[in-house]
Sequence to fold (956 residues):
Amino acid sequence: MADKVTPISGFQEWLPAERIVEQHFLDTLRAVFELHGFASVNTRAVETVDRLAGNGEDADKEIYGVRRLADAGGQAEFGLHFDLTVPFARYVLENAGKLNFPFRRYQIQPAWRGERPQRLRYREFTQADIDIVDVGELPFHYEVELPLAVADAFSRLPVPAFRIHVNNRKIPEGFYRGLGISDVTAVLRIVDKLDKLPAAAVGSMLVEAGLTAAQAEQCLALAQINSVDDGFVERVRVLGVTHPTLDEGLAQLKAVMDAAAEHAPGLLFADLMIARGLDYYTGTVYEIRLLDQPEGTPSVGGGGRYDALASDGKRTYPGVGISIGVSRLLGLLIGEQGLTASRETPVCVLVAVTDEQTRPESMRVAAALRARGIPTLVAPKAAKFGKQIQFADRRGIPFVWFPAAAGVGTPGEGAAGEGAAGEGAAGESSDQVKAASGAQTGDQVKDIRTGEQVPADRATWLPADPTDLHPTLSPKRQ
Amino acid sequence: MADKVTPISGFQEWLPAERIVEQHFLDTLRAVFELHGFASVNTRAVETVDRLAGNGEDADKEIYGVRRLADAGGQAEFGLHFDLTVPFARYVLENAGKLNFPFRRYQIQPAWRGERPQRLRYREFTQADIDIVDVGELPFHYEVELPLAVADAFSRLPVPAFRIHVNNRKIPEGFYRGLGISDVTAVLRIVDKLDKLPAAAVGSMLVEAGLTAAQAEQCLALAQINSVDDGFVERVRVLGVTHPTLDEGLAQLKAVMDAAAEHAPGLLFADLMIARGLDYYTGTVYEIRLLDQPEGTPSVGGGGRYDALASDGKRTYPGVGISIGVSRLLGLLIGEQGLTASRETPVCVLVAVTDEQTRPESMRVAAALRARGIPTLVAPKAAKFGKQIQFADRRGIPFVWFPAAAGVGTPGEGAAGEGAAGEGAAGESSDQVKAASGAQTGDQVKDIRTGEQVPADRATWLPADPTDLHPTLSPKRQ
Fold:
């Protein structure tokens, strides 16, 4: 298979050090979701085309169909899922009799959309979703709880400054009704354009749609209200509109903001302009936005409360969920900002090989260290020790272990401080290492960053700094 | 989306408790691979059809093509990968300038084949691969090392008795050449039928292919040699055939077996009948077999040494790899043998809610426990305590926490031992729980399996048995 290889646009892959960053993000999301009581679900990559089509707003044309190459002609039976909500809804219906409700699940998997790749928009992308679904009715308090789990996860990750913008659908709905507007969705759809058009233009569209100038003005005024706390309530009240649904929406959003003030201070932002999935959400809606990013940086997650995730005709499954765009977040952090790992390999210790005859002894050292949880590698060749140190240095492996080998001199302190130097220096120092043998006969370990080399017991040794055991994140590209 | 849902044949999905088993397997494989110095690589799900086609023996017709539904007509440009070797080879070529060789990677991902689903053979299946690739040349010792990593991983998992069967291609090749046979591959291909046909039938086929009866007999005799240690060497020598390639093969297989005797006693099995990937492997070959399983149970992994994983025309990348069929293993253990988890949720503690007004206090308890790594859930409703205990019991959650709530009686010892009982009893005991309040005002925690209820401090409490913190594997279906 000798041929040229070029990346496929919209399909992001990471180098090993970058992948360690991705793993750290996925591990942290998983750990926090589990701390908050979500169980893992993993669904197949494909759904029937029938199920996929019609379930995503304008997504039909982006669905990747899947069909055996051998089955030429005809229609694709399957498609790759374009989100994790459609497969989860199907999973809930398929396993309803075996799940305990309310059912809390997290799901971290790739999804695929055949759209034109753009900055931070991929054709294959990893999503991390949490949802709570119940049968028939879902208590409101889950709408309070859900964003706290996301805030908890993000607060443990090296993400840039962010805020979770929150609104409640009942606020514009009740407000519009209080103003005497009947077609709530049509008005929402126009007001939703405020993030792209100036307020005056949106106001004109509202008037064209049949609102009075006063109604239009009120709608725009509502959408422009936001606050870091529950201050939005008073600002809505000042507009003088009353309706029971408005009252309910304000009380619910206030409950979300009050809980956030205690459990995730500063991370939630009441923003009455947030709409999202107009045909879908019925209560609280969320949108995760990064602050201080370049113009056009998309949101890195969102979700909301929906009254019907799925229905089997007899029962309806309402829920609330948030989806985090992991690929988008990592595309920004790794791809654009250079976030990387302290090393490109899990290896903490490289065990040197004195000569090929004593490789079994080096393997014994490695087995002893691994048995105590220390990622360990045996050197590929019985090269000069300087070369072996260089091998570790190139990969960011912090420690090189020199086994005591009968009849073979162990490297002494003479080489300390030189092993981690550049190629030439390492090559030179290897002779010194071999020359400075004999004084000690036990195992020794060298921290190649400092050059410090000390006697060590393979049965008890651990890195002095426990963070050396595994790669850590590093904000700068190396 | 009200409709009937039926599973898709060949696409296995797990229920939450089963998924916990799967996660345990994937976590253990990953942890052990990292201990052995392998770095994680994750590749996109698709490759170009050109790259996939012609790279898998007879796999072409099983490839799933991927094309946007909107792009009707024409040929699929992409296909889903059918293993992790083809994408890894492409990744190595694409990133050769950025990788440090020898490069050790593990890759745990799904793959897809459009074959007819059978027992333990799926259309979507998860593989866990480890490979070591180098540029130009790859030292033999990696062939010794690689199966030890797999043996280490399996020895930490609740897999049934297994053995890694090992052979070396140089043994039959050298042996055949020593017998004067020139078309080695043709003979190998016939001898490989020994696992399906009786020896006499295979012998006849060898004679039909041009071998003398004596040559055929020797070939069959060689293939039937196996040993748990290096005893195979003597048994081959007794056959009286000599050739330098045979010597090399015997020495290499002996080195593999000797290392295994030390690091993985009893887990490797020298088996001179193992062939695998006839056009592909050039040295050691591996096949992981479960013992004492029903007839027809396929191997759960395999691999070997290959001289050209990939080539860019100038450089060739030899390697050695083993692939573990995770879905197959779990299909057997979970699907057929009922391996499951001790509970269906990560939750260790359910925090009871005394009434909806004090839900914020229950959320505070949950936050305090989560901050110390204890997966915690707040009860969905301020139902009678008996109902809340029942909620935990149904999900296997071991502990229920009763927050001290100002003005609300905390449950006393009177209810101990009754909470975990059946529905009726739990309903009754809830009244007793409420009645027995007042004596204590601090938080209390109940182990609902024993009924024991004790005062507890949310800032310091941990389960007495640390294994209660997370679900554990359970051999019996619950």
